[in-house]
Amino acid sequence: MPEVNLLAAFSVLFTGSTITELEDFSKLMNLKMIGPVTFYEIQRTYIFPVIEDLFTAQRQQILAKLFLEHNPEPHEAENDKPVVPKLAHLSGDGRYVQRNLSQSF
Length: 105
What we know:
It is a single chain. This protein is mostly helical and 105 residues long. It has a domain at 3-70. It is 55% helix and 0% strand. It contains three helices and no strands. α1 (3-15) packs across α3 (36-70). The protein is elongated.
């Protein structure tokens, strides 16, 4: 796969743009660019797995930090009752939001 195809697909996601806007710009500038089929293929095959791996790793780090902050290690001599962990309530993940990440005036 040409490197420019991967970069174009990543740039669409990172700028909050859409493949349609990239196509319109490419036609305006008379450039040959990837089409929607290629874009979605690259997105499914290369981009989403990377985003998923990074998201999972960062989420695990955050949850571990939150768990340790809310559940300090009990002292051994303090009591014999088991400690019930407190849980943080998180909502939404926002992994695949493409629209409205950047504003154009």
